[in-house]
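Hi D.,

Good news: the full-assembly prediction came through. Inputs first.
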Amino acid sequence: MFPTPSFVERVSTDLQRDLLAFLPELILCATIVALLLARLVTPLSRKHLGSFALLASGCALAFAICFWPERSAPIGSVPLSGNVEGFSSLLVFDTFGLYLRVFLLVFLCCSLWLSLLTGIPDAEDSADYYTLVIGGILGMMLMASANHLLMAFVAVEMASVPSYALAGFLKGRRQGSEAALKYVVYGASASGVMLYGISLLAGTFGTGSMPLISRAVAVASLGEGPTLPVLAGSICILIGLGFKLSAVPFHFWCPDVFSGAAAEVGAFLSVASKAAALALTARFLFVFSGSSRTGPDDLSGSALALGWAFMAAVTATFGNLAALAQTNIKRMLAYSTIAHAGIMMMALVAVGPRSVGPLLYYISGYLLMNLGAFAIVALVRNRTGSENLDAFRGLIRRAPLLAVGMSIFLLSLLGMPPLVGFAAKFQVFAVLYETGRDLGGHDGMIAWVYFGLLVVAALNTAISAGYYLKLVKVMTLEDPADPSPIRVSIGSGALVSILAGLVLAAGVFWNPLTQYANRASQSFDLAPKFEKPAKIPKDAVRPAIGPKGKIK
Amino acid sequence: MTELGLTPYLCLGAFLFCCGLLCIATKRNAIGILMGVELVLNAANVNFVACARYVPQFALEGQVFALLVIVLAAGEAAVALAIILNFYNNHSTVDVDKADELKG
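Then the structure:
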């Protein structure tokens, strides 16, 4: 019962390794504590703490880049392909998680910079705002590297609870409080349903560890197929994730929350939380598909893939059709977010390493263009006090830089070459086509699902041109009601130019980002193979503390 | 005393879950909806505790799950109540049907 010295030594070396790999998250934790304590110190209590938060996040980002596998960091190092399980296999450090961690931290830095420029938290509220944003990002980073159902649920809650509060951050506004109320009511229900699903799944398999469950699912699928609790549990979990992804029919919160909350918060919800939810969904889909039993495309035969494909197609189509009628720009961007989530879900239908690469590329490109679009909405709101289409009328005469930047972001969201949106959509379409073609040989019906998705995706791109180009037309061709120029500060100009430049650069030179994304997707290639259990180190997947509380 | 076995507990969990969902779907009072959410979370907790008792290799994990869920539910309820209070300050009601200004 008592731990032996060798056990203590192994645990302490493991802990040191895990904590080092966890350093970026630890920095964010320390920042949160520091931000909260700063309110107690009299000279700091009235200061705007944005620059401190930005500095700390930059620090965390630098460490996260240092731990990137290619750098072959000696500590906490993750092999270029493969994964290391940390904290008694609660978390997994693989290239997929590390890629998303860097991406989320980049987003955090950009969004903190944006909040400094637009001044949405004033000095009084700055500590609260940055605590919530950093806490939310921390939860999303954990979502991206969760390896255990408990960790997944804790991470989802860590990411959503700050989001609820952020939606209602502007306390005196009627619309803000309504948005927060709707978000918290729907969100709490969805996470409750998800937890119930987790309890069924974990109880049935007697463990919450995702690799173990995925092997058990693989074993079960050889026999009589999934039992009722497993089926119900999987469906409940997918409902919870579908809510986070704002997939139809769980999308109704998204437009209301986006139009009620500030544009900065909208950017946070649309980019970061979608990215984290997609990452977690990818991990879950691998679990449910029994983790590459015979091959990564094995799921494609199952009903799960068909259902998922249908949901993705409906989500993309509904988002685009609803966006056509909007006059509030934030609401339009919310529906556009739903549509893009649908396209990203399509990439996940072809579960496998080759679909995760394009998905990661899409997420990265989406970060640049959607953050840029929300940033411009926030900047225009600050000058004109309106977020409606009318505020953008003739923007080219009033603020040429903002109008050109917005046009670049919108055209990229539409998927025009040579912008990053085109490259991202192209890769998703290519993966759908290739999967369909490869399957065509032995299962014609399923292959047509992929070709059907391809057609839906192409039609959606055409529909989305309607509202994206309408806004571009309003900005450039129509006459402004109030021709007075809008002053753009140097910092705002710099942020918009940098984002627009990156959208253009990443669209012209795909290769570096694509290579990183594909490398990151390789960690799914090495998910424990069912046929060769000998390859899995025993300690890696087994909980550190075994049944009956016996310590191994 | 005879052992009941796992099934009755799972049925209790499922019953609580359905009650919670029904409460969420029918209540118009935001606090009532929040209570429905708590029912759903507790349904999951009944499952965890029962499985911890009857599934040998889940003994510790199940209890840890249950403890963390209690903590998370408390945190979520605190934030939700704060948001409901803020809604009340702005709208003088906690009826979710009155939250209809945002639509389209």
